[in-house]
Structure to design on (714 residues):
């Protein structure tokens, strides 16, 4: 059946048809929709895990149980899951295990740009790279087969341009896959010496076999045209190269680790000039060059960071113009109207305290409320950064701001660490009851009473306050920061993304345009033609009316 | 037709930009073309800028429309114009505030009706694509608005 599917939906469809029984992950753009689609299949037990490491560990348990499993995450999620990955490469799998990871070249919604293929290289596991939705679907199914045939986890490497674009998929129905038996086998699954030593030898032998397989793999293919120009490419870059340089010969690589080196060698022998076109880093190029194959042009001269485009490639081939690296994110995110975070950061902005942020919608405050966030590193980092800062400068003040979902992802060990070492960090937990940034997925701690959990770690100074009660929050913050022990402020409320509009009304007879209310930076509130306006998407939260001394907003 | 046709839908979130491009892509697929689609959504979930592009033809490679290559640019409640996407001879379909007042959240279907007069798909394929996207009640209303848009644009032109 022909269907128009996004890359992410194609992966979910492929996993379902391949007989995956377990699926997990943690939300993160551009990978989120894979699990969201898998949740809809009744035959699959799909769940959001507390973090990516836990998701992969659960999947490995499912594989040990003889059932096919898939995990999905964004590139930085694989950093968190890299610990189990490195040793899963040793133990191998029982039933197929696929790790779908989506990279974000250009950092449209991420803190960094990574090339997940390098993880495949480091872990010695195969990496498959689709160029459109149909291949995402087929390679997902193929990935499970390779996983079982070679007894290894398999990485399916996507990028934003594959995950978030749609193309036609020809689906062929559910495969008939039998479960594998479950039994005890410590020499394969208990990684202590000498078992792990033997497994390393097995793994390296497997890699040699995979190298041979890559040369035979049908998804790696040559499209021969000219003898002058030959392009070696993978992923979305294949599509760009085909369109930008239609006369070139192309070697399209779908298994980028291990590379089909025999195929690459025979391709390069037939063609005068070899170009390697790939998004992110020079992953294929470096290996190809190391083999002594003469690459005329690769990543470094074409483009060193950001997303590639047809224009980039055309400019390079026909206008002899190397691309200047584009700087800056194309997207200026804003808060939703009436977002409960607005009041918090409006106060933090002028506090003069060092504020260690984290990953979530609140990261946007760094731009909206200048000076309200001083660092953003990775999931769960803020609390520990504040701790290190105070250990080094005991006379300063430090606050860590973290969302509830991020707190359950990786903030809890950081809080325990701070309490254990008696560091007087003030931790503000933004408890909006959702993983808001990625669309409001539920998280593992949703049924846990936060205050009780925090109390059990040994924190004595715990205060709970409503998000919209900003005057109380201001006072509590002052008290906490001036104290000399670890304190936690839990701000309670709900993410307003699904709230219906309920606009406030401005009494223009009273409003004298003093601008006090604009400090809240609500996107619904603005001045046009010398008068204050509230847009129809206002949810009536009252943050602005609380700031108005004259009572002009009711 | 040996050329790929590039169509860009743009506007404010909540006005069915993505829905419009889904229907257009689906109509292209039903008409036997290869088709690819790319959505760009802002980080903000509500009221932000949304753009979606559809490319169709015998064989489509890239899913994205490069600057200066769009044959059609459909703007629905667009605040400012998206980056210079339209080609020199490209056709711009603007859904004016008057039309938005009249059709509200269904303006996207009116826009599709206009667009449909320029493209080579059979009327039946458009109707099937609309049918595949909505529940019964909304479907009837949306089909009606689509046909209104189609009638408004009576001069049938050939594409690119």
């Amino acid at each position: 059946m022909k269907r128009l599917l996004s890359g992410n939906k194609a992966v979910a469809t492929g996993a379902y048809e391949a007989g995956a029984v377990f699926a997990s992950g943690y939300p993160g753009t551009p990978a989120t929709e894979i699990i969201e689609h898998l949740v809809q299949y009744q035959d699959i037990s799909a769940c959001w895990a507390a973090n990516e490491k836990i998701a992969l560990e659960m999947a490995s348990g499912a594989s040990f149980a003889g059932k096919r499993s898939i995990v999905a995450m964004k590139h930085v999620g694989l950093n968190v899951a890299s610990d189990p990955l490195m040793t899963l490469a040793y133990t191998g799998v029982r039933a197929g295990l696929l790790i779908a990871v989506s990279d974000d070249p250009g950092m449209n919604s991420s803190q960094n740009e990574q090339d997940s293929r390098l993880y495949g290289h480091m872990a010695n596991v195969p990496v498959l790279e689709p160029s459109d939705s149909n291949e995402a679907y087929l390679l997902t199914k193929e990935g499970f087969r390779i996983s079982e045939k070679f007894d290894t986890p398999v990485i399916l490497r996507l990028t934003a341009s594959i995950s978030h674009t749609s193309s036609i998929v020809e689906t062929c129905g559910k495969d008939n896959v039998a479960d594998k038996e479950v039994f005890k086998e410590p020499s394969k699954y208990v990684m202590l010496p000498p078992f792990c030593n033997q497994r390393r030898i097995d793994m390296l032998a497997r890699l040699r076999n995979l190298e041979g397989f890559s040369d035979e793999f049908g998804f790696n293919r040559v499209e021969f045209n000219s003898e002058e120009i030959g392009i070696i490419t993978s992923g979305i870059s294949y599509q760009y190269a085909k369109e930008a340089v239609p006369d070139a010969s192309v070697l399209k690589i779908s298994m980028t680790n291990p590379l089909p080196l025999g195929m690459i060698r025979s391709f390069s022998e037939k063609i005068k000039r070899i170009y390697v076109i790939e998004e992110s880093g020079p992953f294929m190029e470096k290996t190809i060059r190391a083999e002594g194959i003469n690459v005329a042009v690769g990543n470094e001269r074409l483009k060193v960071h950001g997303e590639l485009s047809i224009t980039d490639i055309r400019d390079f081939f026909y206008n002899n113009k190397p691309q200047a690296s584009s700087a800056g994110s194309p997207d200026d995110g804003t808060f939703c109207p009436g977002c409960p975070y607005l009041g918090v950061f409006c106060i933090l902005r002028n506090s003069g305290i060092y504020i260690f942020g984290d990953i979530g919608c609140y990261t946007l405050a760094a731009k909206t409320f200048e000076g309200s966030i001083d660092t953003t590193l990775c999931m769960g980092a803020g609390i520990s950064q504040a701790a290190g800062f105070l250990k080094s400068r005991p006379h300063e003040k430090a606050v860590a701001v973290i969302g509830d979902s991020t707190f359950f992802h990786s903030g809890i060990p950081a809080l325990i660490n701070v309490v254990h070492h008696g560091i007087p960090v003030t931790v503000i937990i933004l408890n909006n009851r959702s993983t808001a940034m990625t669309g409001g997925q539920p998280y593992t701690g949703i049924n846990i009473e936060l205050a009780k959990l925090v109390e059990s770690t040994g924190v004595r100074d715990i205060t709970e306050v409503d998000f919209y009660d900003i005057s109380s929050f201001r006072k509590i913050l002052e008290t906490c920061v001036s104290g000399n022990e670890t304190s936690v402020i839990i701000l309670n409320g709900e993410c307003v993304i699904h709230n219906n509009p309920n606009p406030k009304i401005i009494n223009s007879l009273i409003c004298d345009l003093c601008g006090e209310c604009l400090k809240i930076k609500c996107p619904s509130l603005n001045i046009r033609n010398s008068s204050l306006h509230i847009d129809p998407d206002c949810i009536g939260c009252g943050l602005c009316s609380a700031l108005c001394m004259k009572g002009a907003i009711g | 037709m040996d050329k790929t046709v590039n169509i860009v839908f743009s506007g404010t979130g909540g006005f069915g930009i993505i829905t419009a491009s889904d229907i257009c892509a689906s109509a292209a697929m039903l008409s036997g073309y290869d088709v690819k689609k790319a959505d760009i959504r802002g980080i903000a979930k509500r009221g932000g800028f949304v753009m979606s592009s559809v490319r169709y033809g015998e064989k489509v490679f890239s899913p994205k429309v490069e600057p200066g290559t769009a044959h059609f640019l459909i703007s629905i409640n667009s605040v400012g114009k998206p980056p210079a996407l339209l080609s020199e001879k490209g056709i711009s379909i603007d859904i004016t505030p008057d039309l938005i007042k009249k059709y509200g959240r269904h303006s996207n279907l009116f826009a599709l009706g206009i667009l449909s007069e320029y493209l080579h798909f059979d009327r039946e394929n458009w109707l099937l694509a609309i049918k595949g996207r909505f529940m019964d009640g909304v479907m009837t209303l949306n089909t009606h608005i689509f046909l209104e848009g189609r009638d408004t644009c009576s001069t049938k032109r050939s594409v690119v």
About this structure: The mean pLDDT of chain A is 94. Chain A is about 40% helix and 20% strand. Residues 195-216 of chain A form the longest helix (22 residues).
